[in-house]
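STRUCTURE REQUEST FORM
Protein name: Acyl-CoA thioesterase
Source organism: Blautia aquisgranensis
Requested output: structure tokens
Priority: standard
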Amino acid sequence: MDNGQERRKKTVAESTTEQVHLIMQQHLNGSGRLFGGALMQWLDEVAGVVAMRHAETHRVVTAAVDNLQFKQAIYEGEILVLRGYVTYVGKSSMEVEIDTYTELPDGMRQTVNRAFFVMVAVDENERPTQVPELLITTEAEKARNEAAKMRRSMRKQRRENGF
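Status: completed
Returned output:
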């Protein structure tokens, strides 16, 4: 910060967000499966909420979406769960991982998608603004943070190469 104060730190748990959807007819494509655009909208919403909670602001923008992989189809009547959390924080940017599952009747969850969003906190003039640092508290969070650093480096390389 400009006044010499140390940045506040927030844990992953403080901004973790879970969203649940019952898949209905209006969510399906012509093949009777979940429309990818509907899932993209929900993923972006979850990423936004996670970023808003971490950054302590309602002003966040989506800067990038990485690694959107559909591992299995999702059908009408299934329960879809999206769980998002911060994996990395820069000065104004945050990487948000969102894991998507179908929830079986016994409560077990099957992974159907994993996505990574880069979100940026902005001020009233749409300029990037500083966010709290990320406080890593578990070995799993540390591993996700290390992987996020590698993805950040790859994103930088792609930008430099014109991708």
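Reviewer notes: DSSP finds two helices and seven strands in the chain. The helical segments are 36-55, 139-160.
Form closed.
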